[in-house]
C-alpha cells in the first residue's frame, strides 16, 4: 500500500507509514471477501441459497428433538445444493455445502441414536 502523504511503499497489514508515520487509510474489502459476503446474502429476488438453508437446518437441529427432523432435512438440502453446484461450478463456494452436510449427518446420527436409546430404556424399565 502506498502512503498518501510521502508516497512510500508499505505492507498491506500496516496501519501507519514506515517512512513518515502518517496514518494509512483503511483497506477496502477485496473481491474475494466481497464474494464470500455476497454468497451469504439473499440473491436476486430475495432468495437465500439452498446451501445456507441446509446449514441453518443443521444448526437448528442441534436443539434436542428438533434434530430428528432437521438433521435429515439438512442432509437432503445439502445433497441437493451439491448437485446444483456440480451443474454450475461458479455458483458458490462448496464450503457451506460441506459444513451443512457434515453437521447435518452428525445431528441426524446423534439425535436418532439418542431417541432409540431412550425407547430401549423405556421399554426395558416397564414391568
Number of domains: 2
Query: Helix proportion of residues, in percent?
Result: 55-70%
The value of Rg in angstroms is 24 Å
Poorly predicted parts: none
Order of helices and strands, N to C? HHHH
Helix- and strand-based class?
mainly alpha
Mean pLDDT: 80
Please summarize the sheet with the most strands: none
DSSP helical segment count: 4
Shape: elongated
Distance between the termini: 77 Å
Q: Note the beta-strand portion.
A: under 5%
What is the β-strand count?
Answer: 0
Polypeptide structure, described:
With 127 residues, the protein is mainly α. It folds into 2 domains: 1-40, no CATH class; 45-125. It contains 4 helices and no strands. The longest helix has 31 residues, at 95-125. The mean pLDDT is 80.
Q: Would you spell out the secondary-structure blueprint of this structure?
A:
Elements: H1 31-40, H2 50-60, H3 67-87, H4 95-125
Helix pairs in contact: 2-3, 2-4, 3-4
Q: TL;DR of this structure?
A:
The chain has 127 residues and is mainly α. It contains 4 helices and no strands.
